[in-house]
Amino acid sequence: MEVRRAPTLLALLLVGLVTACGGGEDAAPGGAGQDGVRLGFSQVGTESAWRLANTRSIEHAATNAGVRLDLRIADGKQENQAAAIREFISADVDVIAFSPVVETGWDTLLQEARDAGIPVIVTDRMVDTTDTSLFVTMLGSDFTAEGRKAGEWLVEHYRDRHGRVRIVEIEGTAGSAPANQRRAGFAEAIKADRDLQVIGSGDGDFTRAQGEQVMAGFLAAHTGIDAVFAHNDDEGLGAVEAIEAAGKRPGTDIKIITVDASRDGLAALAEGRLNYVVECNPLLGSQLMELVGKVTTGQTVPRRVVVDETAFDREAAKAVLHNRQY
Ligand code: AHR
Questions:
Q1: Which atom of ligand 1 sits closest to the CA of residue 282?
Q2: Residue 51 C-alpha to ligand 1 middle, in angstroms?
Q3: Which of 33, 51, 110, 286 is such that its CA lies 20 to 30 A from the CA of 277?
Q4: 135 Cα–ligand 1 center, Å
Q5: Virtual CA dihedral for 127, 130, 136, 137, nearest 10 degrees?
Q6: Which residues of 203-220 are buried (b: 16+ CB within 10 A; e: fewer)?
Q7: How confident is the model over 201-243, as pLDDT tens digits?
Q8: What would the pLDDT profile of 24-70 be if each residue is shown by its tens digit?
Q9: Residue 12: enclosing H or E segment and its boundaries?
Q10: Residue-range domain boundaries for the chain
C-alpha cells in the first residue's frame, strides 16, 4: 500500500524510540508531543478482563509514543465499528487500526480506507477478506494454536482413561476470529483420542455472565460432564460459578480449561478451580505503536506479527501470579 504522507520528524522519532517486545509488554518509551501521528482505533468492547487490559495497553503506549489516539469502543457491534472507521476516514487520520468484532463483512469498508489512502492495521482478531492487501499488517495471537494447546492438555490428561470423556465447549462471540479458530484448533487436537467427545457447545460471548448461563444450561441438559473448554477466562469463571451452584467441585468433579491467563484466571487456577489456562496476551500497545511508526514512515512491515504466548498449569500459575499485569 502506498503511504500517503511524508515521514514527519515525530514519526521518525517514534520508530526510533519504540522497541518491539515479544510478549507485547507495555513499556513503550516516548513522549514525542502533541503534534503526533493520528491513529484512529476501533475497539471491540468491554466484554472481558482481556479486552480492558488491551485497551489500557493501547492508550498507555500511544501516550508514551506521542501518538494522538482517537479511541472508539464498539460495544460488540460491527455496525458501530463501521461507523467509527468511516469517521476516521472523514477525519483523515494517518492510520486506522481495529480489532474486528467478527471476521467477515469488512471488504467495502477496507476498500473505502484504501481509496482515501489511509493504511489499516488489523489487531488482535483477523478479518476474512477477499483481498488481504486491503490491510497492511495483522498484529495478534495465533488463536488456532491456543485452541490446539487446550485440546492437547485434555488428550494428555485423559491418556490412561478408558471410556468416553464428555466435553462441553463454551465458545466466544459467534462469528469472531477467536471463537472460530479456537474451536478449530481444539477439534483438531482432540481428534487424537476418539474417546474425547464434545457433547454440547454454546455461545458464551466472552463474558462471565453468559459463560455461567451457558454452563448452567449444560448442567441441566447433561449428566456426567467431565470437562469444559471455555474460550476465555471470563466464561470459564462463569462456568465455575454455575458448577458450584449445581453442588459440584469445579476443577475436581469437572475439569476446566480456559484461554487468556488473566490475573483472575490464574488465581482460580492456583486455587485448583481451573485446571489449565492457555495464554492470550492483550498487551499489544507498544507493538502496535511501533507498527504505526513504521507504516507512517514508509518502512516495510511484516504481513503478520504473531504474539509469543505460553500456557499455565497450577504450579506455573502460582509462580507468576504475584506480578501478573492483567
Ligand atoms: O480477541 C481476543 C479475545 O477477546 C480474548 O480471548 C477474550 O477474552 C476477548 O474478549
A1: 2
A2: 6
A3: 286
A4: 21
A5: 40
A6: bbbbbbebbbbbbbebbe
A7: 999 999 999 999 999 999 999 999 999 999 999 999 999 999 9
A8: 344 444 433 334 999 999 999 999 999 999 999 999 999 999 999 99
A9: helix 9-17
A10: 8-140+282-308, 143-279
CATH of domain 143-279: 3.40.50.2300
- The C-alpha atoms of residue 184 and residue 193 are separated, in whole angstroms, by 16
Give me 58's grid cell.
493501547
* 8-140+282-308 against 143-279: fold identical: yes
Q: How buried is residue 145: exposed, middle or buried, by Cβ count under 10 Å (0-12/13-18/19+)?
A: middle
Spelled out in words, what is the top-level CATH class assigned to the domain 8-140+282-308? alpha beta
Q: Which residues line ligand 1 (CB under 6 A)?
A: 47-48, 50-51, 124-125, 178, 206, 232, 259-260, 280
Spell out the residues 6+ positions from residue 9 whose beta carbon is closer than 8 angstroms to its own: none
Can you tell me which residue has the cell 489456562? 277
Global pTM value: 0.91
- Cell numbers describing residue 202: 454454546
How much distance in Å is there from the Cα of 118 to the middle of ligand 1? 27
